[in-house]
Amino acid sequence: MTGSPQRSDVLVIGSGLAGLSLALRLADHTQVTVLAKGDLTQGSSLYAQGGIAAMLNDGDSFESHIADTLAAGAGLCHRDTVELAVRKGPEAIGWLIDQGVKFTREPGVNGPAHYHLTREGGHSARRVIHVADATGSAVQATLMDKVRGNPNIVVLENHIAIDLITGVKLGTGESRCFGAYVLDSLNGEVITPGAANTLIATGGAGKVYLYTTNPDTSTGDGIAMAWRAGCRVANMEFIQFHPTCLYHPQAKSFLISEAVRGEGGLLRLPDGTRFMPEHDERAELAPRDIVARAIDFEMKKRGLDCVYLDISHKGEDFIREHFPNIHARCLELGIDIASEPIPVVPAAHYTCGGIVSDRHGRTDVPGLYVAGEASCTGLHGANRLASNSLLECVVFAEAAVDDILGSKSRPLPRLPQWDESRVTDADEEVVISHNWDELRRFMWDYVGIVRTTKRLKRAQHRIRLLMREIEEFYANFRVSHDLIELRNLVVTADLIVRCAMQRKESRGLHFSRDYPEMARKPKNTVLRRRRPVR
Ligand SMILES: Cc1cc2nc3c(=O)[nH]c(=O)nc-3n(C[C@H](O)[C@H](O)[C@H](O)COP(=O)(O)OP(=O)(O)OC[C@H]3O[C@@H](n4cnc5c(N)ncnc54)[C@H](O)[C@@H]3O)c2cc1C
To answer: FRET partner for 454 with CA separation of 20 to 30 A, picked from 141, 337, 350, 412?
Structure first.
């Protein structure tokens, strides 16, 4: 089945903070189509709790935010990108306020200068602006309302991009991007929205791992599509793991805040023994990466499904007052954290690497831009500083807007419709679910928090087998939402493993037992393919 192609000036693939902010800024000037593979809300942006980092206070400075970002990035941040993001921070927050985001104010104080700022790990000043403990959902709701009411923006929900349409695919010889093939998941139709410029704003790839704080949408689609189209991809080995995600079959992606450890929570093995003091003198208060690594070590050594975080000794009143949401959510799931420990696992949280882009969000393919978690702008380097990611979404969406508006408009070629003449309905859907589970399990076991060359090779071997099987399936059967995601997941997994194998050192979020030291000269891992996929 094929559908009628639609055209717009700009096609935005993704409706998180990056996609919506670009669409809103552009819509004053031009016509935009926004794709979301589920409904508009779905994406990591909705789940962001902490807030957005920006220099907003007299006691802070741009230099200090820059220095903190560079320190977290362990030698791999691009200084000019960091400068750009940090210096644009106040303006980005101002734009969100103009859209109607009601950031939390200091109690009893009104006026623009009196927003409440929190301080997070790695930041040397209070600079995280927030909306209580649900910043992402407040920002997302505000921008969604604006997008829905804008006559220049066409929103296509439940539309999943399959692949980019480039000149190489069309056989014109030029590598330019002209839009994408997109599956309407509700009716199975494939449409070909053409556009002079396309933005990838598809978010990260946490779903490559068995345990993740990311929503179901984070399957690395944009990274895989851009890779197939000929873009460079970099630093994919740097996956940030959150140390404590609730381990419960009915609770996907529920974070147990690090504040629980900050307030005296203790990590225990199933028999009640504490283990953090053996790993670091700061015990439970050690930095996030060290705690995640220690939990991973204990789980792998003892074959455990989870460890336990115990705050019950603080008493019910204290817990209800300090952690009302965690208390209530756990209680719903039958865990009373005032009298029993919380089962937790570390979980993939943030993809630092991605599609290589410049200061304007441009990729290697003309007409193709990227913003947000799918990008590798050089802001995060080897480790993301907390709350810099939402900032990156807004700043680089704006940078891309300026570039798109300044670019010459070109006529679009005729785009061929999706060809389904040689495929049939899938006979065995189980292949998809089985491969999906297998991939996420071995990525967790072999390419998780602590890596070795032997484990990476094991993963690579399995990835090659899976890739062959999935490509064969893709070539012979009608595309479905799950098949598109699986195809992208396995490519993203391959990119992570390739980057990890190239890094012969431990730096930032990449820790290898075979190369525990940090090399003297910091180097990005940049992958480029020999030729784009036709
Ligand atoms: C639990 C949690 C808490 C966080 N807390 C913070 C925080 O406090 N501060 C901070 O700075 N960062 C935080 N982060 C990180 C931050 O939320 C993300 O990095 C950021 O929201 C990414 O935004 P994005 O627009 O790039 O992607 P997303 O918000 O993930 O949006 C991706 C969009 O792309 C769409 N999409 C994907 N693939 C396709 C496809 N093939 N076709 C069509 N559409 C597609 C999805 O439907 C979705 O609309 C947190 C992340 C998580 C998971």
So the answer is: 350
